[in-house]
Amino acid sequence: MSGGDLSGLDALCSTLCASFIxxxxxxxxxxxxxxxxxxxxxxxxxxxxxxxxxxLQFDLGEGPRWEAARSRRPVLLPYVRSMPHExxxxxxxxxxxxxxxxxxxxxxxxxALDIGxxxxxxxxxGELGESGVGLARALADGAAWSLLRRVLVPExxxxxxxIGLSPSRREIHQATGMVLAQTGxxxxxxxxxxxGHAFAHGQTVRQSSADVLERRLDFTPPAARxxx
Length: 228
Fold this sequence. Notes:
single chain; alpha+beta; 5 strands; Beta-Lactamase; Arc Repressor Mutant, subunit A; 5-stranded antiparallel beta sheet; elongated; 2 domains
């Protein structure tokens, strides 16, 4: 939750949640991330209701956050009080005890790597609109990269020790080139994706690189795959 002396990851997550609230017609936001075991941990919530909505879905094991994580697509519920909830009957009923009138969940995805989800709610019903959804997608993409860099880029020599091998190894260089071609980013970002995948799946960077070279792992963004 916000407040007090925030630093490091806490400050970043507070800023990321605020970025959604500042530019979108939403009341609150919660940010959750996957750990290496693929369990979710709430990193920050803008207010008590945002935290409660996240907690309810986590405790019940159902809700739009889980669908967004599984499908890697946004789940948009602009009128949660007037729509059926066959997919999440228990969570749908629990919603009636809150002031949330609309929910929007966006997955935080970088290539083949699932970073987490951002959950947005409104205290009044209504859609985000096409431009709002597009802006939320862009903010989610930026949040995913920010979290990935914050966790994996070393600060004062800390942060990435033990998650892989030297990037000078030939196969890592080759895999970095393939990831670069898939994502259209930079070589540094491509290597960061390899390190992130290795970290999340308990692999070395060499093992993740081998998966890329053998075409078992592809970092092409979902939107680009849909257009192919």
